């Protein structure tokens, strides 16, 4: 009889323990379901709201680029870069909310980026140079520039290279990495440009008259600007000539017209005014001996 009571008691205890474990497992399941469900809801909210904010930021950035009059190809590239970067950030935030470990993923992307960067270091340098040129615009298509030992008109600005046409119509392709990191002389960036001349007259010629003739040449050329005022001065007493410095200003587009026209006038009119354009001479003395 005692053994039977003991078995019954043991069975009751096992049944009670099983019931308690079932209740415990159900409570644990409900807690976990609520926890994961909350994380899923938050992750979805982060994804939806984040994508909306990313879209708005991209739109604002597009308006800024349009107002700043950035190059069309650069606008598309920058907009794509900003949009993709923001979307990746939103997705990573949502996955992180679900408990996905992002450290290894970020490290993998970093390692891949480093390997790609080392393999294409020169190309990426030209790419970065192209972006810098398109953003800061030290020159634009149609400008006359001198850079990297080349001189000519900018025909095209690509992401990796700048195409220059020389005055004799040769096509020169210059990597943007070198262009962005080197000295650039832009002859057409400013709307006005100074034209310099050195006019030589002979020793004994009337300097005052030469100055008056040059002033007349200036007044007759409507492409020469009055402001800044032209300058005429005695520049140098050279070995075989008295050199007069002449400096005038004109529109950048009129530079060569002013230059060639003034040189032509000096050559054709100075002689009529009794002014000589000297050139180096050598006197040879022959001594005859008996």
Secondary-structure blueprint:
Layout: H1 2-67, H2 72-97, H3 103-119, H4 121-136, E1 144-147, E2 150-157, E3 161-165, E4 171-175, H5 176-181, E5 184-186, E6 192-201, H6 207-220, E7 231-237, E8 242-251, H7 255-269
Antiparallel strand pairs: 1-2, 1-5, 2-3, 3-4, 6-8, 7-8
Helix pairs in contact: 1-2
Descriptive keywords:
Helix Hairpins; alpha+beta; 290 residues; 55% helix; 18% strand; 5-stranded antiparallel beta sheet; Alpha-Beta Plaits
Give the CATH class of the largest domain.
Mainly Alpha
Q: From the alpha-carbon coordinates, what is the Rg to the nearest angstrom?
A: 41 Å
Look at the helices and sheets and give the structural class: alpha+beta
Q: What is the count of helical runs? A: 7
Separation of termini?
170 Å
Q: Which series of helices and strands comes N to C?
A: HHHHEEEEHEEHEEH
Give the helix proportion (percent range).
Answer: 55-70%
Envelope shape: elongated
Strand % is 15-25%
Number of strands: 8
Residue-averaged pLDDT, rounded? 82
Strand numbers in spatial order across the main sheet? 4-3-2-1-5
